[in-house]
Known about the structure:
Oligomer: single chain
Distance between the termini: 30 Å
Helix content: 10-25%
Largest sheet: 6 strands, antiparallel
Amino acid sequence: MTTTLTSNSYGINNNPFNYHKFEQIERNIGAQWLSLEQITNQLNLFQDESQDEYLLSLELAVRMHIEDYLGMPIFDVSYRVYYGSEMYGSPVSFDLPQTSLNGITINSVKYYNLSNVLTTIASSNYYYDASGDKIVLNSMPTDINTNRTSPIVIEYTLAESDLAQYPVIKQAGLLLFTHLYNNRSETTNGGLQTIPYGVDALLRPYKPLVM
């Protein structure tokens, strides 16, 4: 599944960073974050294995919610980012929309040439600058297709974050799990009142600020 998140509207880029848009192109949905033992203890389902399949599917939903809320990879996730050709100078820095405390892996840096062919740039011509969460390209290709809105395409993978193992974050996951398991609905009292999570209070200190 690919999720596209855009930072521009009809060609007008209001994003303070220099990417035009990014897509989530791959996500680890096979790994388990909260163990069945932790989950069944939380729900008081001792010696009951009849719901294990459902619990595991719910565990994935909880984990993905935590990842999305914090913008933090509990397990590896990959993105494709698009940039314009309006950046000049040498070297050129490309902002990344999502990062990880444990760094990233650059999978590819490509551009559309004058023949409109997506062309790979050699890895020796760029590097990751962790101090600014940027990919730095030594120089822009001379045959870049400036007729395309976003001719530069970068794909990279986030490393798993150590924060995912913090007890307070796992407890937030278990709290959300309990809510989803017990209520199975967003509202109560005939659908008139939203059930408060309590999750936000635990996760807010770890959520990056957007200045």
